[in-house]
Amino acid sequence: MSTIAIKRRQQRWTPARFGIYAFLITAALFFLAPLYIMLVTSFKTMEEIRLGHLFALPLQATLEPWRAAWSEVCTGVSCEGVSAGFWNSVAIVVPSTILPVLLGALNGYALSFWRPRGANLLFGILMLGAFIPVQVMIYPLVKVLAAVGLFSSLAGIVLVHVIFSMPVMTLLFRNYFSAIPQELFKAARIDGGGFWRIFVQLMLPMATPIIVVAAIMQVTGVWNDYILGLVFAGRDNLPMTVQLNNVINTTTGERLYNVNMAATILTSLVPLFVYFVSGRWFVRGIAAGAVKG
Questions:
Q1: How many whole angstroms from its chain centre is CA 37?
Q2: What is the pLDDT of residues 241-250, one digit of tens each?
C-alpha cells in the first residue's frame, strides 16, 4: 500500500475521530466560556449589564472598568485598585521562584550524583511533606515565624513558599539528573571538578528544560496562591489574589460587575502570559524528563 493511500485512510472521519474532536471542542468551549463572559462584561457599562444579555458583545465598549479596577477600586481600607497587590505579588513571586528552583536543583544534583549517607531516607522524608495538607502546617508555621520575627513580612511569605515548594522541586530535578549517565559525572570528577564546579558548569546548563518547567510551575503556583498570602504576607504585602477577593466579596455599595471582571482578568494576566509564552517549553521539558526518566 502506498504512503498516499495510508495518509488518506488516516485522514478519514471515522466515528472515533469525530467523537474525539467533539469532546475536545466541547471541553475547550466549557473552559473558554467563563473567560469570554468575563472579558465582554469588563468592557460593558453597568446599564448594559443590567439588560441581562450575558453573551452579547458590548454595544459601547469602555475602558473605565479597567481603569477603576487598576487604580480606584477599594481592596480593603484603601481604595487604590489592585495595582498595589500586583507589585506585592511580583515582589513575592520573584524570590519565591528563583530560590526554590536553585535549591531544588542543588538537592536533586546532590541526591543523584553525590548520594550522601542517608540520602534515600532524607528524600523520602522530604517527599512525605508533599502529601501533608497546607492547612495542617499553617498554625505551627505561624508560631515559628512569629517567634523569629518573620510573621507578616515579605521575607516570611517567601520563606513559606520556599518550604512548601521543596518536595516538588527536589523531585523534578532528582528525576531529571538521575537520567544523566553517571559516566559524565565521573569524567568531570577525573578532570578535577568539585561539587560546585560540576553543578554550575555542567549540570545546570544541561538542566535547562527542567529549569523552565520548575519555573513555570512555581510562578503560576505562587501567583495564584491565596491562603498562604492571606495568612503570612501581612497587611503591607498582600498579594493580588487576596486583594481581588476583597474587591469581589465586598458587601458595601453597588456591586460593579464590570469592575470585578476587569480586576479578575488583571489578576490572571501573569499566569496567562506565562502559559502562552512558555507553554511549549513546558511541554518539551516534561517530555524530556519523561523520556529520560
A1: 23
A2: 999 998 888 7
Q: Name 144's Cβ contacts closer than 8 Å, sequence gap at least 6.
A: none
Burial of 230 (0-12, 13-18, 19+ CB in 10 A): middle
Q: Domain coordinates of the chain in residue numbers? A: 3-62, 90-249+269-292
Q: Which residues contact 55 (CB under 8 A, 6 or more apart)?
A: 36, 37, 40
Q: What is the pTM of this model?
A: 0.84
Superfamily for 90-249+269-292? MetI-like (1.10.3720.10)
What is the rounded distance in angstroms from the CA atom of residue 139 to the CA atom of residue 160? 12
Q: Alpha carbon of 163 to those of 101, 133, 256: distances in Å?
A: 12, 13, 38
Rounded to whole angstroms, the Cα distance separating 152 from 182 reads 45
Per-residue pLDDT tens digits for 5-56: 555 555 677 888 888 999 999 999 998 999 999 999 999 999 999 988 888 9
Phi then psi dihedrals of residue 233, to 5 deg:
-75, -35
Report d(CA 192, CA 242) in Å as an integer. 51
For residue 151, name the pLDDT band (cuts at 50, 70, 90): very high
At residue 200, what are phi and psi to the nearest 5 degrees? -75, -45
Confidence at residue 126, expressed as pLDDT on a 0 to 100 scale:
82
pLDDT at 114 over 90: no
In order of 98, 141, 162, 223, 240, the CA distances from 228 in angstroms are 18, 11, 12, 11, 12
